[in-house]
Amino acid sequence: MKQILVVLILAAAGVLAPAQSGKAQKAAPKAKAAAPAAVTVPRDAEKIGEGLWRAKDPQGKVWIYKRTPFGLIRYEEERAEQPVSAGQAAVRVREAGPDRVVFERKTPFGAKTWTKAPAELDEEERQALEEWRKSAKK
Q1: Which residues contact 126 (CB under 8 A, 6 or more apart)?
Q2: 9 or 63, which is more confident
Q3: Rounded to whole angstroms, how far apart are CA atoms 68 and 39?
Q4: Exposed, middle or buried, 72 (CB in 10 Å: 0-12/13-18/19+)?
Q5: How far is residue 42's CA from residue 63's CA, in Å, rounded to a whole number?
Q6: Domain spans of the chain, in order of start
C-alpha cells in the first residue's frame, strides 16, 4: 500500500514539476477562426414590415432581412405557392350507403377523413359530392 502511495506522489510531483519550474513554456499560437461577416441591411432594401426588409443582390437572388432578438438574420425569399381556396382543395368522396358520405382530404399531418349524412353537408362538401357523382357517371 505504501508503494502505491509513493508512486502516486512521485507521479504527481513529476506532472507538477515542469509547471513549477522557472522555465516558461511557449504555447503554440492558436489560429483564430474567421468570424462570419456581420449581416447588415443593404441601403437599397425595401422595408416590408416592422423589422423586415427585402433586397436583391447582384446575382438576382431576393433576400429577406429580419431583426430578431438575437440579431439581424438573412434568408432567401421563397416563392410561395398560391394558397388553395376551400373549393379547390383536393377532396376524395365516396358514398358509404344511402345515408352516409365519406370525405377524405390530404393535409400536411396526414389524411383527414370525416363522414356526414347528405342532409348535413356544407357548401364545399355538397360541391365535392356533385363533382364526384359527375365524374363517376362518365
Answers
A1: none
A2: 63
A3: 12
A4: middle
A5: 10
A6: 46-76, 91-137
